[in-house]
């Protein structure tokens, strides 16, 4: 590995650990401070930490790889994600920030569900917590796997060393600084990703003789790559179902705990419009950069180098051959930033759920703030160790489960979050039914041996679509056959009044 690359990565790791220590010194030593940063996130940190924890390595590897293979038709995923993120800022962010505080100062999503519906049985909290712990432990493991493979393929180090380095650095700053450290490091990591996704496609286009030269090179490879309604793999036109399936990724935003927890932690509702403008600007530029990296990277690799690579490594490949090792190290740090930002967010959400929704709720109801912070830190280490253990198995089983987690969270929690913020008469039974129906529908859609036009259900249409629709219908129907529990509608009215006073 070149000395410049080692220096860049060393500086990156040192910066992350330094931010963790700074956050530790600035954060209140109570459970709200550790789990939600004392609800004091500024708009810029909120926006970029939400974006960085959202996109993960998918932004720098998965999306460029999809564009590399399918051309502009893969862009419909980006369109759906952008619209979904915007809707999340408009519909969920201000309401969830206010309602979680009104609903007995809820710190986690399961905590909010229980308080919102006055669920004394605690079954809502338990089921939501189990979903979060199971899926996020697997999700975290996939990030650790990505880090291990990055170290193995790019740095000529063993896969196992990559696992421990990736997880070790993330655990260190998450363990020490809690939510504030995670959010602050995500902010820095988001900035690194932004710069990288501007630099790489711009340099590639310049190497191809400008935009016209790059477009010509793509046309010479396959004109279908430049047609948004044609899949360049087989030359077939996309159907309406196909476009809906790709854009449906945006529905997942409403139910992603590691993203919407940022809305719970922002300093003020009045900061949300600023956060939205920053976050959406960051997302549009970054996604466009990722798409162009895949498309023009294909032109460079094919026409200039005349070689073949794994499509998902196009960003890594270009960063190593087009830039000085010092800058190349910075670009590799961008991939690590994408991976680590998501791992840290998932670790903290899982830790928060274990601490608040299991330890405090069932084992130590009178636990002090200091005891809960310690329990949270122990949970971070425990989840990380389980994730590393699972990451030793490179089989696709784990990765396949994690690839469906977005749909699972989106269908199980998305309609529940939305209706809980907008529907006054929503009942506990409707909330429970909607969550279960959404999750089960996604699993059945993936694993049922049923085909439509020779395609599996999941290949025919993305499983989040039927999951989201059926969950929503369940909530609507069950709410008509019951009444909210005592005090629920009064709390909703208080939330509405509080919301109006902030807007």
Automatic annotation (TrEMBL):
InterPro entries, sorted: Na/Glc_symporter_sf (IPR038377), Na/Pro_symporter (IPR011851), Na/solute_symporter (IPR001734), Sodium:Solute_Symporter (IPR050277)
Subcellular localization: Cell inner membrane; Cell membrane
PROSITE patterns named in the record: NA_SOLUT_SYMP_3 (PS50283)
Keyword annotations of the record: Amino-acid transport, Cell inner membrane, Cell membrane, Ion transport, Membrane, Sodium, Sodium transport, Symport, Transmembrane, Transmembrane helix, Transport
Keyword Transmembrane: yes
A Pfam family reported for this protein in Swiss-Prot or TrEMBL: SSF
The reaction(s) this protein catalyses: L-proline(in) + Na(+)(in) = L-proline(out) + Na(+)(out)
Membrane-topology annotation of the record: Multi-pass membrane protein
Transmembrane portions of the chain: 6-24, 67-91, 123-141, 161-182, 194-218, 238-261, 282-301, 321-349, 370-392, 398-418, 430-448, 460-478
Domain of life: Bacteria
Protein family according to the UniProt entry: Belongs to the sodium:solute symporter (SSF) (TC 2.A.21) family.
Function: Catalyzes the sodium-dependent uptake of extracellular L-proline.
Stored NCBIfam families: Na_Pro_sym (TIGR02121), sss (TIGR00813)
Protein name: Sodium/proline symporter
């Amino acid at each position: 590995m070149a000395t410049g690359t080692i220096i860049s990565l060393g500086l990156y790791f040192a910066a992350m650990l330094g931010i963790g220590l700074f956050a530790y010194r600035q954060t209140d030593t109570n459970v709200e401070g550790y789990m939600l940063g004392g609800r004091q996130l500024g708009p810029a940190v909120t926006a970029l930490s939400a974006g960085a924890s959202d996109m993960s390595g998918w932004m720098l590897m998965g999306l460029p790889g999809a564009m590399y293979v399918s051309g502009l038709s893969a862009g419909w995923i980006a369109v759906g994600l952008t619209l979904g993120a915007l809707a999340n800022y408009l519909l969920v962010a201000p309401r969830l920030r206010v309602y979680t505080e009104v609903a007995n100062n809820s710190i986690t999503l399961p905590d909010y569900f229980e308080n919102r519906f006055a669920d004394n049985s605690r079954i809502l909290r338990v089921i939501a917590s189990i979903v979060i712990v199971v899926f996020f432990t697997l999700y975290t493991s996939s990030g650790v796997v990505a880090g291990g493979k990055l170290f193995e393929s790019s740095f000529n180090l063993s896969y196992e060393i990559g696992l421990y380095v990736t997880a070790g650095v993330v655990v260190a700053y998450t363990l020490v600084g809690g939510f504030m450290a995670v959010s602050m490091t995500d902010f820095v990591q988001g900035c690194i990703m932004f710069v990288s996704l501007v630099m790489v496609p711009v340099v590639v286009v310049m190497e191809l003789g400008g935009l016209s030269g790059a477009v010509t090179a793509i046309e010479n490879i396959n004109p279908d790559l430049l047609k948004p309604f044609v899949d360049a793999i087989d030359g077939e036109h996309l159907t309406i179902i196909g476009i809906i399936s790709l854009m449906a990724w945006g529905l997942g935003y409403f139910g992603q705990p590691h993203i919407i927890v940022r809305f719970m932690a922002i300093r003020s509702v009045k900061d949300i419009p600023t956060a939205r403008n920053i976050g959406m600007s960051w997302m549009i530029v970054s996604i466009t950069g990722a798409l162009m990296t895949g498309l023009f990277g294909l032109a460079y690799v094919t026409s200039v180098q005349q070689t073949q690579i794994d499509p998902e490594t196009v960003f890594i490949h270009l960063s190593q051959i087009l830039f000085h090792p010092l800058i190349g190290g910075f670009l590799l740090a961008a991939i690590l930033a994408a991976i680590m930002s998501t791992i840290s967010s998932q670790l903290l959400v899982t830790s928060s759920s274990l601490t608040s929704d299991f330890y405090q709720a069932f084992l130590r109801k009178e636990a002090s703030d200091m005891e809960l912070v310690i329990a949270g830190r122990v949970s971070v280490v425990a989840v990380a160790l389980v994730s590393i253990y699972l990451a030793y198995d490179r089989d696709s089983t784990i990765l396949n489960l994690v690839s469906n987690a977005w749909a699972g969270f989106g269908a199980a929690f998305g309609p529940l979050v939305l209706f809980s913020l907008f529907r006054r008469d929503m009942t506990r039974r409707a909330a429970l039914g909607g969550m279960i129906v959404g999750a089960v529908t996604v699993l059945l859609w993936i694993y049922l041996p049923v085909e439509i036009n020779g395609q599996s259900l999941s290949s025919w249409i993305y499983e989040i679509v039927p999951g989201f629709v059926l969950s929503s219908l369940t909530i609507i129907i069950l709410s008509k056959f019951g009444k909210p529990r005592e005090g629920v509608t009064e709390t909703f009215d208080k939330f509405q009044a509080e919301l109006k006073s902030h807007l």
